[in-house]
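User: Modeling request: complex.
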Amino acid sequence: MTIEQAKKKALELIKKSKTCVLATVDKNGFPNMRAMMNLKNDGLQTIWFSTNFSSIKIAQIKKNKKGGVYFFDEKMFKGLRLIGEIKIKTDKASREKLWHPGFEIYYPKGVNDPDYCVLELKIKAGNYYQGFEKADFKI
Amino acid sequence: MTIEQAKKKALELIKKSKTCVLATVDKNGFPNMRAMMNLKNDGLQTIWFSTNFSSIKIAQIKKNKKGGVYFFDEKMFKGLRLIGEIKIKTDKASREKLWHPGFEIYYPKGVNDPDYCVLELKIKAGNYYQGFEKADFKI
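Assistant: Request completed. Predicted assembly structure:
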C-alpha cells in the first residue's frame, strides 16, 4: 500500500465512521481515551470535536496539548491512528461550525452555552492499516 | 451509579467485547492507539494482550510503560477507560496462557515464535460511563 493509497483509504474510513476514540494524556502521563462523535474534518489536516468545557479532557488538554484520534472498523480489520496537537476553541465561528440540531441534550443553553466548546486537532502524522498492510504518513 | 455498580458493569462490558483499544505513549509524548483482541483479564486487576515483539508498541512500552485500555459499546453509549502500567512478558507461562488456536496467522512459528509476546497491563484506575451516568474508581 502506497502512502497515497493509505491516505485515500484513511479519508474513506473517517467518512463512514460515526464515532472515533480521542486520547489525551493526563497529569500523571497516562493516556486517557473516550469515544467521540465524528462530526467534522478538513481532509487529513484537521479534525474538530464538540465537548463540555467542564469535562476532564479539557483540564488535561490545558496542561498537555498532545493528543491522538483512532478510527477503526473491527469487522473489516481497518484502522487509522492520527496524532497531533489539540486547541480548545470557544469563539463564535467554531461554536457555529460544529453545532448540530439536538445538541441541546448536551448543552442546554444552545450554541452560546458556556459549557459548550470545540476541540481542534491539527494532525501531524498518521498510520493506516487494512489487514496486514499498513503505511505511515506525515501531514 | 455507585462505584460497585460501575465495576460490575465494567466487567460485563469487558466480557462481551471482542476488541478494545490499547494506548501507549510514543517517544514524543503523543498517545498512540490501536485495536487489540480482547483475550484475557483477571477481573479489573490485570488485562493481557498478545502482540508481535517487532511491533512499534513494544519499542514505545520499553521507553514508557504508561498505558491505557478502552472498551466501548457505541450503540449503547457505554464505555470503560482503564489506565495502568504495561509489562512485556516473554516467559513460557505467559505465552501459553494467551495462546489461541489459529494464532499461527500472526506468529507462524507457534507458541515459541520469537516474534510472539504478551503484554500485561496492571490497572491502577478506571472510569465507567453509561449514558450520562459515570463513576471513577481506583484499583
